[in-house]
Give the backbone structure.
Amino acid sequence: ETGVTQTPRHLVMGMTNKKSLKCEQHLGHNAMYWYKQSAKKPLELMFVYNFKEQTENNSVPSRFSPECPNSSHLFLHLHTLQPEDSALYLCASSQVPGYEQYFGPGTRLTVT
Amino acid sequence: AQSVSQHNHHVILSEAASLELGCNYSYGGTVNLFWYVQYPGQHLQLLLKYFSGDPLVKGIKGFEAEFIKSKFSFNLRKPSVQWSDTAEYFCAVIGSSNTGKLIFGQGTTLQVKP
């Protein structure tokens, strides 16, 4: 595997479910990011991790819970989501914050 | 507040036409600037970047962009587009000493007719 990978690619979940999104980067980077891409809205940064430490939480609701066990892996734990949370969730990584970011293919999430 | 504005939401061109996509940003400090492209069914890819130095930067696939500090602009250009350039283009900015908060514009959809 090369670059940034994300699983699953598609996810349908009910409002009472708990699920997790996984991201893995194979680039040797130290910073990882979660973004939300909704229709007709700019990409929204959700979280930033640098050397496994969270450095940015962009006022994200607590029903989204990130986890970064090491510099190569990033998770987004989801629970009691709302239909408006349906979107494409993108993971990215960079050598350090401020450098160019490399994106994964995203997870298309639908909340029913 | 920090923001990025892309002037054109949807652009339609014929092959061989010249392209210029506008991007203006609002940020109080030194910035790094990027253009990303998302081809149909593919993930976001870096097209080009500007950190410092020559304000005219060249990217992949014949694209270039010019940073004009006085105008807070970073417009994307290509002298002759191809059908394969059909995609969505995003301008993005980050503070040079930022914690990683990359701010994106709303994107421009480019449709190139063969």
User: Anything to note?
Assistant: Residues 33 and 93 of chain B are 5 Å apart (CA to CA). The interface with chain A takes residues 4, 32, 34, 36, 42-46, 49, 90, 94-107 of chain B (CB under 8 Å).
